[in-house]
Design goal:
The complex is a heterodimer. In chain A, helix 3 runs parallel beside helix 5 (136-148) and helix 5 (136-148) runs parallel beside helix 6. Helices cover 31% and strands 28% of the residues of chain A. Chain A is built from eight helices and ten strands. Chain A is an alpha/beta fold. Chain A has a six-stranded mixed β-sheet, with helices on both faces. A four-stranded antiparallel β-sheet of chain A has the order 2-1-4-5, with helices on one face. Chain B has helices spanning 2-31, 38-56, 60-81, 92-113, 140-162, 164-174, 176-181, 186-211, 219-233, 238-256, 259-262, 266-281; strands at 129-131, 137-139. Chain B has one domain: Orthogonal Bundle (ABC transporter involved in vitamin B12 uptake, BtuC), CATH 1.10.3470. Chain B has a two-stranded antiparallel ribbon with strand order 1-2. By secondary structure, chain B is mainly alpha-helical. Classes of the chains: A alpha/beta, B mainly alpha. The A-B interface holds A 50-52, 71-74, 76-77, 81-82, 84, 88, 90-93, 97, 100-102, 104-106, 146, 150 and B 164, 167-168, 170-171, 173-175, 177-186.
Chain lengths: 242, 292
């Protein structure tokens, strides 16, 4: 069953067009990895889904309803949560308050502070600290926990690994299966191809604002991924960097 | 003892300054909104009280039961209908719109109530006081004003730190786009904040009218004192607003001690000098967050 169906999506900033006719489907319960080089349009795509950037053209069907023109704060109530690039925690709020405000939209479900702390136990002793003083990994855990607090049906993760030590990235990725088990469908944007493919059930590659490849990680040759990622001829056979 | 009395009276006067500054501080703290009509709104609140008292015969204190909700609703509606369209990283649109609003309010008040000065009569309590020593007496009205200011600011601080509305205010103040990702309707929240700002400035206006006479053109002077109190205490800081108001009040009354030598105006002059010293040495205010 399809949860998200994007058709012919164009979007951009001012006069600059970043996305060109994007078609993407996301099925209920799957983890879709969206990969691509810097500037490919991955973050823009997530921001359009979350309502932070307006769609210029096309449709965004979420559970059968076109949400292309629904305001960002209402999309959370429908069950779409974005973990933005750079974490973007509220600096004047404590960790506990950052988590609580994630539930502002009032959706019910299995996620609450206790269940979030079960997935990210390292933030339990930090609950009453200002979020500004946390390390990058701790902040990312809080950011994901904050999104879970809205009990999303679709969680959008933007560059989870950005700027974090490999050991921290591994611990965060180890926690991702719990999101799916909790009932959320995951759309993951990453530059770290290895990490993304390890958890994804399907992948989409963007190149200069267009879909250049789509398939299952175990059904696509590494050379094809590399070609789609860098815009090389499909037969180049070069290994993708991670 | 004269100096001690000046300080005590300054603290009382500071309560009124803090009340004036509360709404200005809230609007700036939540949405970085500079409201140049703030002083005129205080005077508008006082004139609304004049009309309410004239129509109902209520005591000015009791008239707040009507004046505050009316001003709260006006602030909510004005933010939704006009101010929200001026909110942007560029402060100029909000400054121009509220500057214009201030002029409109002054002229509407002149047309409606004439240029005559008014006062709000609360009876003999206006001249009654508590005698602390032979040289120091605290008037009931200034004392009530200070208590109301502390109560309003305390309630505001409690709301900001302990309630979901306060959390939402702080989140929107930090980062509006990310706050929207939490399901927060920032535009509606701004309207709530402006409603509260209007309500507090209406209280300030009524207490001003009880304390002294006022006219339709008195708003800009009140705006100046409110701005100074906010800047001294720290932009967006609730307790800073109280500290700023009290310090400004003390500066006015201590400066007033020089009036015999230097003539009328030395009180406000010392207040302005304190403001300038704080602005030059600690631009973020005494209790304000460091500018980022």
């Amino acid at each position: 069953m399809t949860l998200l169906e994007v058709r012919g999506l164009d979007a951009g900033y001012g006069d600059f067009q970043a996305l060109f006719g994007i078609d993407v489907d996301v099925a209920v319960g799957e983890t879709l990895a969206m990969i691509g080089a810097n500037g490919a349009g991955k973050t823009t795509f997530l921001r359009v889904l979350a309502g932070q950037v307006p769609a210029w053209a096309g449709s965004i069907m979420f559970d059968g309803t076109d949400i292309a023109h629904v305001k960002a704060h209402r999309r959370v109530g429908l069950g779409i949560a974005l973990v933005p690039e750079g974490r973007m925690l509220f600096g004047s709020l404590t960790v506990r308050e950052n988590l609580i405000i994630g539930a502002h939209a009032g959706r019910s479900g299995r996620w609450n502070i206790d269940t979030v702390l079960d997935v990210f136990p390292l933030i339990r002793p930090l609950l009453d600290r200002p979020s500004q003083v946390l390390s990058g990994g701790e902040q990312q855990s809080v950011a994901i926990g904050r999104a879970l607090m809205s009990n999303p049906r679709l969680i959008l993760l933007d560059e989870v690994s950005l700027g974090l030590a490999p050991v921290v990235v591994k611990s965060l990725y180890d926690a991702l299966p719990a999101l799916s088990e909790g009932g959320a469908t995951v759309l993951l944007v990453e530059q770290d191809i290895g990490q993304a493919l390890a958890v994804a059930s399907r992948l989409v590659c963007l190149l200069e604002g267009r879909v250049s490849l789509e398939g299952r990680p175990d059904g696509v040759a590494r050379s094809d991924i590399t070609a789609a990622y860098f815009g090389l001829p499909a037969s180049s056979g070069t290994e993708a960097s991670s | 003892m004269e100096w001690l009395n000046a300080i005590v009276q300054g603290i009382m006067l500071g309560g009124l300054f803090a009340l004036f500054a509360t709404g200005l501080s809230l609007a700036f703290g939540v949405m970085r909104f500079v409201n140049l009509a703030h002083g005129d709104l205080a005077i508008l609140g006082a004139f609304v009280a004049v009309s309410v008292i004239s129509a109902t015969g209520l005591n000015p204190f009791v008239s707040l039961v009507i004046v505050v909700p009316v001003m709260l609703a006006a602030g909510y509606a004005l933010q939704l209908g006009a101010f929200n369209f001026t909110i942007s990283p560029d402060p100029l649109p909000s400054i121009l719109v509220t500057f214009g609003l201030g002029i409109v309010i002054q002229n509407v008040l002149l047309e409606t109530y004439s240029a005559d000065s008014r006062g709000l009569d609360v009876g003999s309590i206006e001249i009654e006081s508590i005698r602390v020593t032979d040289a120091i007496a605290i008037g009931w009205i200034p004392l009530i004003t200070l208590v109301v200011a502390v109560t309003v600011l305390g309630a505001l601080q409690l709301m900001l730190s302990r309630t979901s509305l306060g959390r939402a205010f702080r989140a929107v103040s930090d980062d509006p786009p990310t706050a929207r990702l939490m399901g927060i309707n920032d535009r509606n929240l701004y309207a709530v904040a402006m409603g509260i700002a209007f309500a507090t400035v209406a209280v300030a206006g009524v207490f001003l009218g009880i304390r002294q006479s006022f006219g339709p053109l008195d708003g800009p002077a009140q705006l100046l004192y409110a701005f100074e109190a906010v800047v001294i205490g720290g932009l967006g800081s609730v307790w800073g607003t109280l500290v700023g108001g009290l310090l400004l009040g003390v500066a006015h009354t201590v400066g007033g001690q020089f009036e015999v030598t230097y003539g009328y105006g030395s009180g406000p002059l010392v207040g302005h000098l304190v403001f300038l010293v704080v602005l030059a040495t600690k631009p973020s205010g005494l209790l304000g967050r460091r500018a980022e």
